[in-house]
Design goal:
alpha+beta; 10 strands; Phosphorylase Kinase, domain 1; 2 domains; 11 helices; two-stranded antiparallel sheet; single chain
């Protein structure tokens, strides 16, 4: 059973979103508009009255939180603060504490998230140079987090890598990793079902049936990066769930070249994805190896439009990544191969216009092959056509269906918060100066 978010706190009269608008924090930072509302509070757009610099301010409500929710808040701030020294991680500018709320002042990214950049504006798909440039930035940010143990007791493992948690700037040329709400410093963890289903590794989704069962955190992030790489290059997801009950993932388990038959990817990218989507985490490509493979990859897709030049340099230099640590006892059991069922998929109907209020947090899924669509996804207010050529090869899977699969439009993932307990620790910012 997948984890569900804890109950959202009820806003008090003092901390309700509307009365905060126009409020000035520390006599300097004025809240000007609402950017979004989450489970724990509200994110505001703000402006520094002295420098006129714009920020995003996350107001984390204290009222109505149970101890578990408060621990999630404290850990998110602590780990984000430790990771924010990297240029491709959203900067944490300052922390302002009040009796009712903790205000976290963050770098503002006016262009929104990577999800919108791919689906609404059509960036990256068909532009291999830009996709590579952006993916290398993201890869360097995650490597920085994993190697954070050089300066702290342990590295930081994000565990919820997805386009919605990656912000963009400079017309999509710069990306910033955000939202450390599910991050951990445990190299090996027993927190099964942590993250968003479409990006979880197979070992993360396994039920905890064995005593002391656990999995390595770093390879789980590598798997998520592989799904994001498919998002960037093809504008869709490879499957809905990396489990044997998903027909598309089952087809990939049966034929390692299956993605090449349904996606317009090059042989080079197909090889990279095979290394990333290795079911045994001990054999999965490391962060360092993945970066080398991406740098050396000459083409991601068939029919790329060729390189377009960025306005400025966009990704940071490579940084040392710590080695993945595995114990033989931690290895997951690889499920046996099963024959591919003969499925006949219905053609998707035309997308109906659906409008969302600005503060809604839609929950749905990325586009997946029809065999993976066990439920209807939340629809976006437009259809999005890929700009890359169809794959040249055809598998028996496609031949049996009689046509190339058509994919429904992308829609946002929900964020899942696990039921596991978090070790209790003191608030690290209690020792920091409060401005």
């Amino acid at each position: 059973m997948l984890p569900t978010p804890p109950d959202s706190p009820r806003f008090s009269a003092i901390c309700s979103p509307d009365p905060r608008l126009g409020q000035t924090l520390a006599g300097q930072i004025q809240l000007t508009s609402v950017l979004g509302i989450g489970a724990y509070g509200t994110v505001y757009k703000a402006r520094d009255l002295q420098s006129n610099v714009e920020y995003a301010v996350k107001a984390l409500d204290k009222a109505g939180l149970d101890p578990r929710q408060k621990l999630f808040q404290d850990r998110e701030i602590k780990l984000h603060y430790q990771a924010s020294q990297h240029s491709n991680v959203v900067s944490m500018v300052r922390i302002l504490d009040s009796p009712d709320c903790t205000y976290v002042v963050l770098e503002y990214c006016p262009e929104g998230d990577l999800f919108a950049k791919i689906t609404e504006e059509g960036h990256y798909t068909g532009d291999d140079y830009k996709a590579k440039c952006v993916f290398l930035q993201l890869l360097d940010a995650v490597r920085h987090c994993h190697s954070n143990g050089i300066y702290h007791s342990n590295g930081i493992y994000h565990r919820d890598l997805k386009p919605e948690n990656i912000l963009v700037k400079d017309n999509g040329w710069t990306v910033k990793l955000a939202d450390f709400g599910l991050a951990t410093q445990e190299r090996v963890t027993a927190d099964f079902g942590c993250g968003s289903t479409f990006y979880m590794s197979p070992e993360c989704q396994q039920s905890n049936t064995r005593p002391h069962a656990c999995y390595a955190s770093a390879p789980n992030d590598v798997w998520s990066l592989g799904v994001i790489l498919v998002n960037l290059t093809c504008g869709r997801n490879p499957w809905k769930r990396a489990a044997m009950d998903d027909p598309t993932f089952k087809a990939f388990r049966r034929d390692r070249n299956f993605l090449r038959t349904i996606l317009p990817i090059s042989d080079e990218l197909n090889f990279i994805l095979q290394r990333v989507f290795e079911v045994d985490p001990r054999r999965r490509v490391s962060m360092t190896e993945l970066r080398d493979l991406i740098v050396c990859c000459s083409s991601f897709t068939n029919g790329s439009t060729g390189p377009s030049l960025p306005p400025t340099p966009t990704y940071s230099p490579a940084q040392d990544a710590m080695e993945l640590i595995f114990e033989a006892s931690d290895a997951m059991d690889v499920p046996p191969m099963e024959p591919l069922p003969g499925l006949q998929y219905p053609l998707p109907s035309t997308v109906v216009h659906t409008a969302l209020r600005p503060y809604q947090q839609p929950c749905g899924n990325l586009p997946t092959p029809p065999g993976s669509n066990n439920c209807s996804p939340q629809l976006l207010p437009h259809t999005y056509a890929a700009k890359v050529a169809a794959p040249a090869v055809c598998s028996p899977f496609i031949a049996q269906a009689g046509y190339m699969p058509s994919f429904q439009v992308w829609s946002r993932c929900g964020q899942f918060v696990p039921h596991f307990n978090i070790p209790r620790s003191t608030c690290f910012w209690n020792s920091m100066p409060v401005y």
